[in-house]
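thought: fold this chain, then report.
action: predict
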Amino acid sequence: MERMASASRAEPGCLEYSYAQDVFDAGLIRVTEVWSDRAVLDAHFRSPHLADWRASWPALGIGERNLVLYEAGDPKPT
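observation:
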């Protein structure tokens, strides 16, 4: 996970990439990613380190994946 996060954070257009364990659901890891635009996210999906990460899942016992994409506008100060 550390290698994946580091490689993703180094990609152009990556504004945030982090993991968090859900305190109410043991073993559930939530991934938060923020990308500058859809084109750089699409490039991330094609990156070699993402393919390597996905290939490692069976050995790590990683199972179900529920990917949800939310698009938001520019952040506004509060």
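thought: worth noting. The radius of gyration is 14 Å.
final: tokens above.
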